[in-house]
Specification:
The chain is an all-beta fold. The chain has a single domain, classed as Hexapeptide repeat proteins (UDP N-Acetylglucosamine Acyltransferase, domain 1). The protein is 0% helix and 31% strand. It has strands at 7-8, 13-14, 19-20, 25-26, 31-32, 37-38, 43-44, 49-50, 55-56, 61-62, 67-68, 72-74, 79-80, 85-86, 105-107, 112-113, 118-119, 124-125, 130-131, 136-137, 145-148, 153-157, 174-175, 182-187, 190-193. A hairpin with a 2-residue loop joins β24 (182-187) and β25 (190-193).
Length: 206
């Protein structure tokens, strides 16, 4: 028998077949359903459900009481706060079976979903976007956007390091107060980082 290189708490259920990457931890009362694929170094907190055929990237943190439903995909480095909500049917009815009508939801690299927020199915949440606690997202979210309210609206930009971008340099670029990295509004409603490739993860913390 091959020794597994990930951890599953004795109270958790992991169906067969699933793929779980090295260093991933599945904690108390969680359930990973068949066909799911979890990357490396993920943490699934207490009472997390990962439904059939869900794809989760590397280094994702899913906090307590989150259900990641079929049709949802998380790229690398996504943070899901406690009790955040995904859906996969836009117009559910108990009497009508809509299993064939699941809409895809994509959460891109590095995004943060705050506690108790709701991501209505069919949306794409952009890279390093930050969804505030309790917000309700009803459509696509730009990269680096700070989304607040019901329905959620962009209130500011956030850096990759999780800081609201307010300070500007002499060239009118937004500057992260922690890293010093610069961000430019290439066109209205779109931000890009000038000091790190868009598709490259941050270096691990020292």
């Amino acid at each position: 028998m091959t020794e597994r290189n990930y951890f599953v708490h004795e109270s958790a259920y992991v169906d067969d077949p699933v793929e779980i990457g090295a260093g991933t931890k599945v904690w108390h009362f969680s359930h990973v359903q068949s066909g799911a694929r979890l990357g490396e170094r993920c943490i699934l907190g207490q009472n997390v459900n990962v439904a059939n055929d869900v794809v989760i990237g590397n280094n994702c943190k899913i906090q307590n009481n989150v259900s990641v439903y079929t049709g949802v995909e998380l790229e690398d480095d996504v943070f899901c706060g406690p009790s955040c909500v995904f859906t996969n049917v836009i117009n559910p009815r108990s009497q009508i079976n809509r299993h064939s009508q699941y809409l895809r939801t994509l959460v891109r690299r590095g995004a943060t979903l705050g506690a108790n927020c709701t991501i209505v199915c069919g949306a794409t949440v952009g890279r390093y976007a930050f969804i505030g606690a309790g917000a309700v997202v009803r459509g696509d979210v730009p990269d680096y956007a700070l989304m607040l309210g019901v329905p959620a609206q962009r209130k500011a930009w956030m850096s990759r390091h999780g800081h609201r971008l307010e300070k500007r340099d002499a060239e009118n670029n937004l500057v992260c107060p922690e890293s010093g990295w610069r961000y430019a509004e290439a066109e209205p409603g779109k931000l890009r980082c000038l000091d790190w490739p868009e598709d490259k993860a941050l270096e691990p913390a020292k």
